[in-house]
Structures
1.
Amino acid sequence: MRPVSVILLIFLSAPVMSGQSDSLRHKNDSLPDKFYLLQKVKRDGITMPEVEIKEVTIMAPPKTEKKSDLRKYDRLVYNIKRVYPYAIMVRLRLSQVNDELNNITDEKKRKEYIKNVEKDVFAEYEGDISQMTITQGRLLIKLIDRETQNTSYALIKQYRGKLSAAFWQGIARLFGTHLKDEYDAYGDDALIELIIREVDAGRL
């Protein structure tokens, strides 16, 4: 099994322990419910309600006439569709396990629950994930950071310890991958972000 496959399985089964570090915040349990805050703003002597909205970035689709570039783009789309669901699963699994552990106070039962989760995850995902390529593994590391707001290295260090994180970082480096890679939606990973938005919208 490729190292990235083992790393992903670790993510899927890793518990989010209560009292976790404030540096590890996950989208699904740190964002407030959607709401709009109206403010009174006076402009030209007239007071009007106003709501602050998030900045919207518009990116044009890639344009190229080279067949090689088109093939690379198509391959990137394929790889994103291949690994994106697993990045989402990592986020959801972390939240699910955290919710369960919040209801378990006995330390022995917590360890037993964690052990059962790990066993179930390996049985469910090992076969499929083991078929991922190194390129897909690199992409997955980026998308895990996108979904969880934490690098893969930080997650392993928090949930499996510093020694384990250093070990898997060493293995990843041998395969040209870096567990500390961060997702940059408006920089190096802008094209990936565009494709993901198209996938989410059902257009790809």
Note: The beta strands are 38-43, 46-51.
2.
Amino acid sequence: MSDISKLEPRNVWEHFHAVTQVPRPSKKEERIIAFLEDFARKHKLAYAKDDAGNIVIRRPASETMASRPTVVLQSHMDMVCEKNADVSFDFDKDPIQTYIDNGWVRARGTTLGADDGIGMAAALAVLSDVSLELPAVEALFTVDEETGLTGAFNLGKDMITGKYLINLDSEDEGEIFIGCAGGIDTVATFKYKAEEPAGKQAFFELRVSGLQGGHSGDDIDKNRGNSNKILAAFLAKAAEICAIRLVNFDGGNLRNAIPREASAVFAVPVDNVLQLFDLLDKYCEAMSREYAHAEPKLDISISEVPAAAYVIDVATQEGLLGAINDVPNGILAMSRTMEGLVQTSTNLASVKFKDGMTIVVTTSQRSSVEEERLEAAASVQSVFERAGASVEHSDGYPGWEPDPESGLLAVAVAAYEKLFGKKPHARAIHAGLECGLFLKKYPELEMISIGPTLRGVHSPDERLEIASVAKFWQLLIDILQSIGQ
């Protein structure tokens, strides 16, 4: 058993270890669903599953708490599946390999899945610890939060009955979240023609790596490099000066992750190879200066590869590279009402060559202001349509408007002050949470979101601060025992 199962609070860490051993990519949650059903049966707890695959497990109130209101604890089952390029790992089959590193829990070369495995673990610990005197608890575990919020969108009728909901999907101990941004995806599709390379050509692969990546909501304000932007900027220069012709572009993976790596294969006339290398040397120097502090491990490398059978047509190449360079990326607006909060942003998440001579570029826009979210999506759409792409938008999801007068928030703040002798910070978050969707289905809900400290979320640098888990657990139990006093 992993060493993490020996950490304290033991019950939480044992459950977290168990969760890490179950493969649970988004849209492939059948194993973790079975795990939760087995858990409910083992502990003789009533549970229900809706058509989407969401699970709710119910713990009855302790005798001394029978008159208290029911509380919903909510977490999501799926995890972001990102790994370093040099790591061999199958997220559909392999358990996460955890280890302890100087006060943090990490995974070897992959995402850890503490988003939201640690929230699941806390809920399971509440359900299984019969020594705790608690009100009735409904632990709701949703599917597919990371790639579409489809579990929350399709939550079955009457799955929950509690008036209070504590979301366990936040990443900063000492902060209580009371609002979040809404989001929408904008996806552009290019169609290209294959052409035979003309004349004597050399073929190269250019790779951008070593970036931090991270969560496209939480980390968008950290000036981190976007691998797609960095790669496309050089390719556009090289096309203009060295007449390169693009064969392939593969950058980023997930819509809600800042892309860390990108690569492109291209042809260049043999007579222009030295000019290409000189151009690349100058570009690497410029990027090293620009990202010296934000991305100290940025690496741009080039290697010769076998000749390809075709290159894409010039018009599509110009449209694709031009759009990637022109499309907005990063912060678009800061909040005018909450200091330090990103209000609106956009993320150029991935560029993928698909079957059928198709190139798909996925972007995501976030905002706590509905009109700005739609305006950002329209701006991105305009750039890609001018470049010749067809564009579609996802249905999007609503934000969660803060309620600073919430009674549940007051209970949580008082519990934190009592336990730790200082006042927690109540704030909104630029990342998306499922809370806005729950509020649409259950408008009477009062909600907060709490969690331990996580860093590097949605990247292989994801790590969970050990000391913060104990404080998160203490706070959760105190809130549960204080509601309705």
Note: Residues 381 and 391 are 6 Å apart (CA to CA).
3.
Amino acid sequence: METVIAFIVGVLVIVVGVAFSIGLHELGHLFFAKRFGVRVGQWMIGFGPTLFSRKLGETEYGVKAIPLGGYISMAGMYPPSKQERAATAAGRHEDGDPVRPGDAAPHSRAATTGFFNALVQDVPDDPSLRRLEHEDQRVFYRLSPWKRIVIMLGGPAMNLLIGLVCAVIVLMGFGILQPSLTVGSVSRCVVPQTAAGQGQSCDGRAPSPAAAAGIRPGDRIVSVAGSPASSWDQATAIIRRSDGKSIPVTVERDGARRTLDVTPITNTVAVTDAFGQPVKDGSGTVVTQRVGFVGMGSEYSIQQQPVTAVVPYVWANVTGVGNIILNFPQRIVQVAQAAFGGQDRDPNGPISVVGVGRLAGEVAAADQAPIASRAASLISIVGSVNIALFVFNLVPLLPLDGGHVLGALWEALRRRLAKLIRRPDPGPVDISKAIPVTLVVTGVLGVTSALLIYADIVNPIRLF
């Protein structure tokens, strides 16, 4: 019963954490939109029917029924067409009728409505966005490109900030499991990576260099080849480049120091990525390399990290998400094979919110792990989700924030070129012309989300 309760608590922590992250993402947009005077009709978490809301000033704040994201509705996300601009200048609607007080501004389009409007962050039919002609300056498209870029980057920047804060808490507060300078294991003999699956017996094999030199589990590495050992990675780096050379290794055992002569041999080992996972080539074969090897492993322990470790830690997450996005078609094919063919899921592959919640539940229900470790893991998951949101929203496609940034950059470039060649200002870029692309992207996101949710139900990624 306690395990079930812990599982539920873990899921709830992630649900609240993700909702909080989405809310802060939209708050990042909202802050700069209001700072630059844009009229904002709504700030919402979720899509679809409104569960509850409250209006403060001109903006309605609330939660909707479909928890697949969030949005703010800014007036004038899309500029008017040439015909609409001409009608505005003449004081008439595009159909020729005169503009009267209380009418929607001529450039307030109603080409898209409902759920799609929420996706593109423009709700022109919202009564709160109706305005008199003299108020038309309070629209998004009239802002300078750099202000629009700041507004659109406000959301991803908030996710990055949350990810950084989570990383600081986990690394500097709780610490992470890392190899220590204490020897945890010593191999009796050396078995090449290429011999995997062919038997691991030491019959007829020479003892490993570590065993031959007398290194034992529990020894603490003090120095290697005369260089003080500051970390296990630094010590093993010296060993890896010293194959065939006799090097002194000083260890501390039972309070006394001993210097042992070790001669690393050349061994074939797997190439690993930033997350310690074996790298595979296009055919799925593990990539190997030849390095110095002595046959000893570290004892892992929880170690608090310095502030200098935060940025590399976050950057590793960013590049990991970026790699998934760059190889998204291949990754989705792998997910489909796992969902319908029973293949193992890639632990570093894409995952849905359902999968994230399931992992969080498993972490919280892991009785063998200390409470502090479980709390750190949950915070780490929230941080990773925010880093994923940060990177994903920078993809330069509508309806993502990166698509709006790309439109603003193109407008700035076009205006700059027009100025250089002394041409008239070409006016704002109408990114609504990319709506067909937006519909395709939205459809792809919907299908892949459904596939990931299904895979996370029938063949989830498991921690244990």
Note: The radius of gyration is 29 Å.
